[in-house]
Design a protein that fits this description.
Length: about 270
Amino acid sequence: MHVVVCMKQVPDTTNVRINPETNTLMREGVESIINPFDEYAPEEALRLKDSCGARVTVVTMGPPQAAVVIREALARGADDGALVSSRAFGGADTLATSYTLSMAIRKLCGGKTPDLVLFGKQAIDGDTAQVGPGVSEFLEVPLVTYVKSLEVAADGAYRVTTVMDDGEQVVEGRFPAVMTVLKEAAVPRFAPLAGWMAAAKAKIEVLDEKAVDADPIRIGLKGSPTKVVTIFPPPVKGGGEKIDARGDGEKGAKAIAAFLQKKGLVK
């Protein structure tokens, strides 16, 4: 069984900058972190490695600094990884990113589709939750989103529990598949010192647009139909009215009632 885990390095949300010309995120020189939602996908893959000997490959798309994402996964127990990196990929929206990742996954799997591709539920920089579903379309395999638990049978069948707005749902199927994983699925393991030492020496394959045989008009800005017209900060909200009623609940209740009456919300 071959499991590919797609992870992403994202800008620290406390230090986000926007390119004024392209209206895209500026990643160079900005402190980055592993997308928090992506922490759970490799753990689910490593559980499959522990239980049925699955091979785990980690893929990330980004600038050279994003290789740290792969090294951390290798330290935890992943078998290999690849960095999809080229200036030609810069400015890609979710469609172009999904296409590029699907081409990279096929390249790493010898032109075939792996048994399972795992994602976190979404990335905190875009919050679209579109790349996992997009990759499933390009790979032409079934998609299961918001996976809470995953059971795999010896005959290649799976049974997952997903979390929906109106409750939980059980989905059964057969591999190959693409799945997005929730934080409820697994608690990420810590990487041992020996793992870190091995990961630091590991050779990470770097794939550019030529290596993955990508169509140049379908990657980067050229392949991105999403156009950001303008970006602006949200309006600053006022501090509101403060009521200090510590130790006097009756005073607080009366003050709230008076405030609501003043606003015309109660009579």
